Amino acid sequence: MEDRLSSFFKPQRQSKIGIFLLFIYYLVQVVKGLWVFVFVYIFKKETFNIYLLLTIIGVFIFLLISAVLQYFNFTYYIDQENDEFIIHEGIINKSVTKIKRDNIQEVNISQPFVHRFFNIYKLDIDTPGSSEKEVKISALTKQNATDLKNYLLTEKGIDKNFKVSDETLQNEEIAEVRSIQISTFSILKYGITANYVQSFFALVSLLIYAFSELSNLLKKVEFKTQLDYDTIESRVLAFSIPVILTIVFVVIIAAILINTIRTLIKFFNFKITENNQSFSFEYGLFNTRNSIVNKSKVQVITETQNWIQKKMKISYVKFLQIGKNEEHEKNVAAVPGINNQEKAKLISTIWNKNPVFENVLKPNFRLIIVNTFQWIFVPLLLFFAIDKDLLLNYWFVAIWYVLVAEFFILVSFRNLKLFYNEKFIRLKSGIWDVDNRTFEVEKLQTVKISQYFWQRKTNLGSITFYTSAGRFKIVALNFLKLKKLLNYCVYKIENSKNN
């Protein structure tokens, strides 16, 4: 192992098959950008054009040369003296990327579908505060990818000779025996019960986009048959309400099926492997991914569950690390379809216990009035001011909006809670998908409370918790209790810094 690791201390190139992968990548990008012209040519031309053939050959040669140059100009190595990982890349505009090993947040190993044919892997290196991957190495052998990941994520540093005892290796192998396997049936249940609303609107948006692109394309090709929104709208409105509802129902079922298939492909054979410092996720049918979550760097654990998933006893758990937040879903380590026993076991590996909360704060009922004014009264007032006649003509739509919006406000109010004990804080929120965000008091960066002048008489205020993975706020709580909680949090934060 010492010989393998020492090879990283001098410039290395990727596997030679990387040339072919780069060529395929460039080719896919060109095809994605020029597919419209290919479509037009197929339907517009009747004979093959020799100039088109020469152009295609020229593009292929250019892409192949670019792939070769990109391969030979990409090198990586470890600067052992400065403890940095360094990457040189670029053909014309050359660049050098240096990453301190202490700043490396996450190293992921994946094996996309094309990589499987050549038995090579892709490695992504991520650092705090970045929404994009800092470094991508596209073609490594499994041994090189694993060795490089293990070195970059080692917390305790290794001497300059990079010697690792057999006893240490043996202990690591024993530690990796502890694992959790998420069953395919659990992932299937999660796929059916999650993200169907987003999938529905995504499918509708895709259909609208496809219709728009096809309509523009037919105009360019000068087809006799043209598509326009007025024609489609008139034909749709000619249907009866049951037919329209049936179409909507079919689209919803299609969205659920698409989301379920996508979830199964993405999270297939999900395996969690634990050792003393971290746990790794390995999953994927066509694109196999392997990511590591360092236990000490986990800032927030989010448990998401809707009513159906609660009955099925499954949930979706996210682990937010330093520099990560829930806005960048791709960079968040998550486990789908995990049951209650597996979830309790996984959380206990990080915090050595499952938090139990003795205290709870609930928002004041005045929050319902504020939200009703904000989401119902103000929109209807603005709509009335803009087009009074339209609002009066469709008064039944306005009534349905009021009823549905008020129902959502009441459900959101009921779910909004703040739990806390001596070591942990949990924020509960949501309407259908209910989130429970839990974090340790000692890992908080700071805590702030605030109160508007009109809240003084009612003794209400809000509190905001700042972590390395983002900030979390809850409003309309008892201000005196918030002060006590603030003082306790500040004490614990300062005490952790001194220790």
Explain this structure.
It holds the Pfam family bPH_2. The protein is an alpha+beta fold and about 500 residues long. The chain has three domains: about 1-165, no CATH class; about 170-350, PH-domain like (Roll); about 365-415. It has 16 helices and 20 strands. It has helices spanning about 1-5, 20-45, 50-70, 115-120, 140-150, 165-175, 185-195, 195-220, 230-235, 240-265, 305-310, 340-350, 365-385, 390-395, 395-415, 480-499, and strands at about 75-80, 85-90, 95-100, 105-110, 120-125, 135-140, 180, 270-275, 280-285, 290-295, 300-305, 315-320, 335-340, 360, 415-420, 425-430, 435-440, 445-450, 460-465, 470-480. The strands form four sheets. It has a seven-stranded antiparallel beta sheet. Helix 2 (about 20-45) runs antiparallel to helix 3 (about 50-70), helix 8 crosses helix 10 and helix 13 runs antiparallel to helix 15. The relative contact order is 0.08. Mean pLDDT is about 80; it is low at about 155-175.
